Structures are given as structure tokens and as C-alpha cells.
Amino acid sequence: MSFTSDSLFQQRRSSVKHTKIANLLEIKPASKCPYFEVHDEGDGYIAVCKVQGRALTRHEARLCEEFWEKCPFKRYGDFLKDLFT
Fold first, then answer.
1. Is residue 45 a contact partner of residue 24, using CB atoms and an 8 Å limit?
2. pLDDT grade, residue 8 (50/70/90)?
């Protein structure tokens, strides 16, 4: 089984669903978390957690920006990455 850093989360990423009322951000978010992804929707941005395989709410995106090092999903993502490498 070959492993690349994104292959573990590839399937989840393609099926991310969101709603504008809960997930659309006016300002592009930024997080140093390696499992954080931003999608430009044209009228705003959607923050995505690759570990959870879902769009983050506006509140969760702000938490991810500020507390990404202590996030349990980051630790789980690191665990899975270490497990398969």
C-alpha cells in the first residue's frame, strides 16, 4: 500500500458539503494546521477539516485558526499519518 500525505484524506475531501448560512466566511481564514483547507466559493470561503472530512462552521474555523496545535482532530490526523508511513 503506497501512502502519500494527502491520499488518506482524498476520498473525504471530494464529498464535502456545506451550507452558506453556517459555513460561508467573508474573510479568508488561515490556519497552520496541515489538515486545514480553504475553498474559494466566489462569494466567500469555506474552511474544511480534512480529518473530519467536512466543512467547518464559522465558529469552528476561528477555533482552528487560533488553537490548531491543541486540536484533537490534528492529533488524530497525525496518528493516522504516522500509522500509515
1. yes
2. very low
